[in-house]
Specification:
By secondary structure, this protein is of the alpha/beta class.
């Protein structure tokens, strides 16, 4: 847009605000949520050139839309999330979340970066160019997440610097390599320094005391990993923006909500982090998080402000997050009773884009590039690769319900001929991670307790963050078959029992995403989850839990392709 066009729009907006020119559009008859005064005000919203010209009485307009009994609020912002975790390609992701009132997301594309590097990120960026949703990217700071993981690609400081120059790049992605930060490593300094003039997202699970103060002082200004009040309080005291997380497998918002009070709430916002397609279809997105916290007693106006203005301010989105002159006309129309947080309509740049749970405008499709469909390259895996020496099985991964943190549990494994074996009666099953990018043949094996499988096996190519194949099973034969099924699909999820394939979901886009519509992906995901439960899996989301069991930067126990990892 040239300077003359910008000037003309700017001047027109000034005239509309003063009532000397008609607005392009006026929304009337509703109460407007003012994030600055924390009030609901009966007023018109005048829109000119896709931006808000004024909030008040505006009788002159080219178009007028009456919204009696409604509340108009800024559209919601997800302050930290991964589009890849929805299993949806970018345009379909937009179709999934926009009807729920989402107007912007801060997306860290480190999942696709681990698989396909900058080319993978650029493919997602291109697909996002014409969706009615503001997508701001963060430059992945940790690809790989740690030296204990084996990704398809590695990003160095120069790669990060090139991405930080994108106009759509909001800052540095979550800095997960906490040990390197606390050790004062040059590599992490170079990455943090490259983004020194931008927000730098943090990731510091379990960090307390002097360690969290050192971490915050090193540069990261936010955190979404807190699971306890003491941990979250320490991060607030250290000056970090606290992102209360409510994903599909990581549900921390209610644990942390007591910390949100009159003194702290302006330094708190919401993040979904990882929310799958089934969750989006049946529960929603940021609107679902808001319903949870409002039902728990948080004031609705305060909650909405946290999901709009607070997030926008942290990420320096200066024209987002409020309904006031000079802000983008990205709005959500809600039922008048805010306790229900029911979304009627979503508006983007002054245009209604969703109504009654469905898009009202087409979203231009952008097919994934073909090279993303051949990302699974696995060396042959044999039964012998899944054997676990008894002396290496004295510790196991212990699951924690509704969390991605785990415990290290000491065990006496069940053995056969000197090898540790799965023992479903003790809820101890094999956990394997198979390197799938470079055909190295590396297979890490351990035991996990808490998944609940009684027979069969499950496997998937979603394995945060390196995205090697993760598999868990009560039988080595079924474990082997599940791994092979995922590899043959070029990525996806599989459930096997007694050598029979019970359910699969193909994820051919980098082994992470589907190019199918939301309803199809959600249905396929429901089927593999149900099939896993039919084998005894007892956690809320068997595949959601499995996907995190190789993530080396989350305490306290994991299995990567390099073996059992204890983070004590």
């Amino acid at each position: 847009m040239g300077i003359d066009t910008r000037f003309n729009r700017w001047r027109h907006r000034i005239q509309v605000a003063q009532g000397s020119e008609p607005a392009d559009l006026v929304l009337s008859g509703a109460r407007v949520l003012n994030v600055f005064t924390q009030q609901l005000v009966e007023a018109d919203v005048a829109i000119a050139g896709g931006m808000i010209a004024g909030v008040g009485a505006y009788p002159r307009s080219k178009e007028r839309v009456a919204l009696p009994g409604a509340v108009i609020a800024p559209s919601f912002i997800d302050a930290h999330m991964h589009i890849e975790s929805t299993m949806l390609w970018v345009p379909e992701f937009a179709r999934a979340v926009v009807p729920h009132g989402t107007g912007a997301v801060i997306a860290d594309p480190h999942e696709i970066a681990n698989v396909a590097g900058l080319a993978g990120i650029d493919a997602m960026r291109s697909a996002a160019a014409r969706v009615p949703l503001t997508i701001r990217w963060t430059a992945p700071s940790c690809v790989p997440a740690s030296p204990m993981e084996s990704p398809g690609f590695t990003l160095v400081a120069e790669d990060i610097a090139s991405m930080l120059a994108w106009p759509e790049c909001a800052g540095l992605g979550e800095m997960m390599n906490v040990p390197a930060v606390l050790a004062g490593g040059r590599e992490v300094f170079d990455k943090l320094d490259a983004a020194r003039h931008l927000p730098r997202d943090g990731h510091s699970p379990g960090l307390l005391g002097d360690s969290v103060r050192a971490y915050a002082g090193a540069g990261p200004g936010s955190d979404h990993e807190s699971t306890t009040l003491d941990e979250a309080r320490g991060k607030l005291e250290a000056g970090m923006m606290l992102m209360l997380r409510q994903g599909s497998s990581e549900r921390n918002v209610l644990d942390l909500l007591p910390l949100v009070d009159d003194a702290t709430w302006r330094r708190c916002c919401f993040a979904s982090d990882d929310r799958d397609a089934h969750d989006l279809l049946h529960n929603g997105h940021v609107d679902d998080i808001l319903r949870v916290v409002i039902a728990a007693g948080l004031d609705p106006i305060r909650a909405i402000t946290m999901a709009t203005w607070n997030a926008a301010q942290y990420w320096r989105m200066w024209q987002a997050g409020a309904i006031a002159p000079g802000y983008d006309a990205n709005l959500v129309v809600l039922d008048g009773d805010l306790s229900s947080l029911a979304v009627r309509e979503t508006w983007f740049q002054g245009q209604r884009v969703a109504q009654s749970g469905a898009m009202t405008v087409p979203i231009e499709s952008a097919s994934p590039p073909p090279q993303l469909s051949t990302s699974v390259r696995v060396a042959p895996v044999h039964l012998s690769d899944l054997r676990l020496p008894a002396n290496e099985a004295q510790r196991a991964v212990g699951l924690v319900p509704d969390q991605i943190v785990t415990d290290i549990i000491k065990i006496e494994p069940t053995t056969v001929d000197g090898w540790a074996v799965a023992d479903p009666d003790r809820d101890l099953i094999k956990l394997a991670c198979v390197e799938r990018h470079h055909q190295t043949g590396r297979v890490g094996v351990g035991l996990v307790q808490g998944l609940g499988l009684k027979r069969g096996a499950i496997a998937g190519s979603i394995g945060h963050d390196a995205h090697n194949i993760m598999a868990a099973g009560a039988s080595d034969l079924d474990l082997l078959a599940a791994i092979a099924t995922v590899a043959d699909m070029q990525g996806g999820l599989a459930v096997i029992a007694d050598g029979e394939v019970l359910a699969t979901l193909a994820l051919p886009v980098g082994g992470l995403m589907s190019d199918l519509p939301l309803a199809d992906v959600a249905q396929g995901y429901a089927e593999v989850e149900q099939a896993a439960r039919s084998l005894g899996a007892s956690v809320a989301s068997p595949f959601g839990q499995l996907a995190f069991l190789g993530l080396s930067v989350i305490p306290a126990a994991r299995v990567t392709d390099r073996g059992f990892l204890g983070i004590e």
